[in-house]
């Protein structure tokens, strides 16, 4: 089968033929319908991420159909109400299942976790293995190809917005930095709450126009360099989906006293935090991916028609081109890589 793999850090993507993976134990094989291309994939391919085991097939934003299962997978499939051939979304935060994070339902935080596209082979392929059925969610009537971005672009901002709930009171001033795939979902989650004033900052003028059409209240000029002193701080909640040095510094300058800055994007930026670096008594935290229950809620919103997202389909073999376009800022929403059309990979 075709797979797109990374063999060396920063060495570039390689399309190659590899054996079809055979499920063992409780494993379930997924015939991939689509795999979203995330900025994290780009960082991995450029050698900018540390928690990666090489060589690896990239891709952690995966949807598809249940294709085969190991000899011990039956009970798990039955418990999840899943059948062979059913369209599913893959939850990628595969924890150890034994630590306190896993026990609390936050296995995406598990320090011993192994996730697709990071430590084990992911969805830039015609098929992939999932360790057990509990990591799969049924898609029902949702198109499995278009649904792939829900596994990260939809999930990650959902968790960030949910964690910010105590700050998101009527009248709160909210800033979204970065209006790519994740930022577009974030705005939709925020618009479901009444009384918020949501603004957007992005370097791409077209995305600023898109933000206005999607309900953002006002733009924040992307190239504004004015100094914001303590009397001008005005944002109660900031979601930084970029995470670069420049965006973090700008966010800290804009954060109001007792405000909240959530760093979501893994742009590698650092923020100096102290009494003279951000507003007094402000809060800075990170938010990474989301839980299985978070993803369940995202799928329910999508199935109910409460979410929209822009998808551009590209052949799996063009993964390197997709990365180039993402790096150049030429992606409106989410590129989804689609494997060659097939009815069976066995």
What does this molecule look like?
With 346 residues, the protein is of the alpha/beta class. It has nine helices and 16 strands. Strand 12, helix 7 and strand 13 form a beta-alpha-beta unit. The protein is globular. The protein starts with a strand and ends in an 8-residue tail after the last strand.
Which architecture of the largest domain would the CATH scheme give at its second level?
Alpha-Beta Complex
How many separate domains? 2
Sequence stretches where pLDDT stays below 50 over 5 or more residues:
222-231
Order of helices and strands: EEEHEEHEHEEHEHEHEEHEEHEHE
Percent helix among the residues?
Answer: 10-25%
Strand content: 15-25%
Multimeric status of the protein: single chain
State the secondary-structure class. alpha/beta
- Name of the CATH homologous superfamily of the largest domain: Medium-chain alcohol dehydrogenases, catalytic domain
CA(first)-CA(last) distance: 9 Å
Keywords:
Rossmann fold, 9 helices, 2 domains, globular, alpha/beta, Quinone Oxidoreductase, Chain A, domain 1, 346 residues, 16 strands, 6-stranded parallel beta sheet, 7-stranded mixed beta sheet
């Amino acid at each position: 089968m075709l797979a797109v793999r990374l063999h060396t850090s920063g060495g570039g993507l390689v399309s190659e033929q590899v054996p079809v993976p055979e499920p063992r134990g409780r494993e379930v094989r997924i015939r991939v319908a689509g795999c979203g291309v995330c900025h994290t994939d780009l960082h991995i391919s450029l050698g900018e991420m540390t928690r990666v085991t090489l060589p690896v097939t990239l891709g952690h934003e995966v949807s598809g159909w249940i294709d085969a299962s190991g000899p011990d997978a039956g009970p798990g499939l039955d418990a999840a109400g899943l059948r062979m051939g059913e369209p599913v979304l893959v939850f990628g935060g595969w924890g150890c299942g034994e630590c306190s994070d896993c026990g609390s339902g936050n296995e995406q935080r598990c320090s011993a976790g192994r996730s697709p596209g990071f430590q084990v082979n992911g969805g830039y392929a015609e098929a992939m293995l999932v360790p057990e059925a509990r990591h799969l969610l049924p898609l029902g009537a949702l198109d499995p190809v278009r649904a792939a971005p829900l596994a990260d672009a939809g999930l990650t901002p959902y968790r960030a917005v949910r964690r910010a709930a105590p700050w998101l009171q009527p009248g709160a001033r909210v800033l979204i930095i970065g209006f790519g795939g994740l930022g577009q979902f974030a705005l939709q989650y925020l618009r479901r709450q009444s009384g918020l004033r949501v603004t957007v900052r992005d370097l791409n003028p077209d995305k600023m126009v898109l933000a206005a059409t999607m309900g953002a209240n006002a733009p924040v000029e992307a190239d504004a360099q004015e100094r914001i002193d303590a009397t001008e701080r005005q944002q109660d909640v900031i979601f930084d989906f970029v995470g670069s040095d420049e965006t973090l510094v700008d966010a800290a300058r804009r954060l109001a006293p007792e405000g909240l800055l959530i760093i979501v994007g893994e742009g590698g930026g650092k923020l100096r935090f102290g009494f003279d670096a951000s507003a007094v008594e402000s809060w800075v935290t990170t938010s990474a991916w989301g839980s299985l229950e978070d993803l369940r809620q995202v799928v329910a919103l999508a199935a109910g028609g409460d979410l929209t997202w822009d998808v551009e389909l590209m052949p799996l073999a063009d993964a390197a081109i997709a990365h180039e376009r993402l790096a150049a800022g030429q992606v409106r929403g989410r590129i989804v890589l689609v494997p060659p059309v097939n009815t069976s990979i066995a």
